[in-house]
């Protein structure tokens, strides 16, 4: 005879929201999976700081590691930077609705390559986030994705523009050109298999 565990399966979103994350780690809910990663390194933090400093505060809220809610998804990603019109978000709370976000930024690390270029690309497109900027210090490039389309795992961005570090990234939705000349890279790391 086979033993069956008939205890009710907890709702993953409720479980995630009550999860106690160890110090030095952060957790994200991505399509029903809880992903826990170590805190970022200095290269990552300096890139995020540089991007944030180039986006005018008077017009845009620039929020680091803000959890966002994606309608129709079992996902609560935590992008490295979230940009929305100043004052457009709620006054309090843990989750920011994806529909009010203009841009999300992810800085690629050795352990986040597939999530940032693959799963999160689909999740942010499904949430209709107008622009997604992937900054890759291993490849020395930025990839700006715009014009989201589709639903669920089939969602994607229609426009993809790649810019090498040292050149400017035109982010029309924000009315800014990001200077990438001071973005640090991660030397000595084997190039990943993504673009």
TrEMBL record:
Question: Is this entry keyworded Kinase?
Answer: no
Pfam families documented for this protein: Uma2 (PF05685)
Task: Could you list this entry's UniProt keywords, alphabetically sorted.
Answer: Endonuclease, Hydrolase, Nuclease
The chain positions of domain Putative restriction endonuclease read 14-177
In which domain of life is the source organism classified?
Bacteria
InterPro entries membership: Nuclease_put_TT1808, Restrct_endonuc-II-like, Uma2
On whether Hydrolase is a keyword of this UniProt record, the answer is yes
What Gene Ontology molecular-function terms does this entry list?
endonuclease activity
SUPFAM superfamilies in the cross-refs: Restriction endonuclease-like
Signal peptide location in the record? none
Q: What is this protein called?
A: Uma2 family endonuclease
**Species for this entry:** Streptomyces polyasparticus
